[in-house]
Each structure stands twice: as structure tokens, then as C-alpha cells.
Amino acid sequence: MNKVHQQLYVTSEWISQYAQSIEAPLQKMNGILIAPSTMPIIFWQEFDIPWLKEARTLIHGTQRFSYKSPITADMLLDCELALTNVEEKVGKQGMLTFLTHTLVCKCNDDLIATAETVLIQVGDPYEKAYNS
User: Fold this and answer.
1) pLDDT digits over 84-104, tens only?
2) Residue 30 CA, distance from chain mean position
3) Residue, of 104 and 131, whose pLDDT is higher
4) DSSP letter at 93?
5) CB atoms within 10 A of CB 35
6) I need a surface site. Which of 52, 59, 70, 125 has the fewest CB within 10 A?
7) Least reliable range by pLDDT among 10-24, 42-56, 117-131
8) Residue 37 and residue 64: Cα distance in Å, rounded?
9) Rounded Cα distance, 101 and 124, in Å
10) How far apart are CA 1 and CA 83, in angstroms?
11) Any idea what DSSP says for residue 72?
12) Assign residue 13 a region: left if phi > 0, alpha if psi is -120 to 50, beta otherwise?
């Protein structure tokens, strides 16, 4: 399946801005700022995702987050976003294509977090967007 990689440096400012945007309290562990658990969802904006460029309108389906340890300020994350499943179903609006993505974030080769996100495309998919 399709994969893209990105290295992300998580700053205190980035954590603070995200926490404020979702009205989440700032939390610290041993004096170090901890990212809100949903923060990996905004990591997507740092990726160039070729298989979504020609996709029609996408609807957010579901998301799940799993942590081995918290994301903290000053962490350098090696992230991989992969399209892990494409499933088509007929719905009331016509053809629905469920695009399952898995984001894996590591720091110094240690798994930190995994996020699974399902995006739903309504209508006929662009075949070449998913099989390139």
C-alpha cells in the first residue's frame, strides 16, 4: 500500500497552540509539556499525501489513538502515514469508499503512538489515486 514519511519536531509552542485550539488543559510530566492525545491528527498537514490529491470530497469517519508513551515537547518524531485498507460499499448516497490510514510515530526507534483514521469518499473513486 501507499506510504509517506515525515520527521516532526514537537515544540512546546505547537503543543500549546493545539491544546488551546481544542480547549484542552495543558498537562506536564516531570516538568515537560505533554501533547493532547488527539494531536497526531494535525500531523497530517505536514505530509504530502499523493493518493488523496485527486480524491473527491472526503468525510471524516473515525479515529483511534494508541500510545506506548506520551508525545512530549522537544520530541523528534519519525512518522509514517500509510493507506492500510480501501473498502467500497454501496450506501444511500451511492458508492462509499472507506480509506483506512495508519499513522505510526516513533522517537529514537521506539514506538510512541499509533493513530488510525478512516476517511469516507462519496461517489466513484479515482482508481489511479489509490493504486499508484
Assistant:
1) 999 999 877 788 999 999 999
2) 27
3) 104
4) T
5) 25
6) 59
7) 117-131
8) 10
9) 19
10) 6
11) B
12) alpha
Sign of the Cα torsion 1, 69, 78, 117 reads positive
Grid cell, residue 18, equals 493545539
Pick from 53, 12, 41: which is nearest to 116 by CA?
41
- d(CA 105, CA 39) in angstroms, rounded, equals 12
What is the grid cell recorded at 121? 469518499
Does 121 have pLDDT greater than 80?
yes
Run of H or E including 21: helix 12-21
19-73 pLDDT, tens digit per residue, is: 999 999 999 999 999 999 999 999 999 999 998 887 778 899 999 999 999 999 9
pTM over 0.90, yes/no: no
36, three cell numbers: 493532547
Q: Which three cell numbers stand for residue 10?
A: 514537537
User: What are 77's three cell numbers?
Assistant: 518524531
Give residue 132's pLDDT. Answer: 44
19 touches 36 (CB < 8 A): yes
The three cell numbers locating residue 21: 485550539
CA 23 and chain centroid, separation: 20
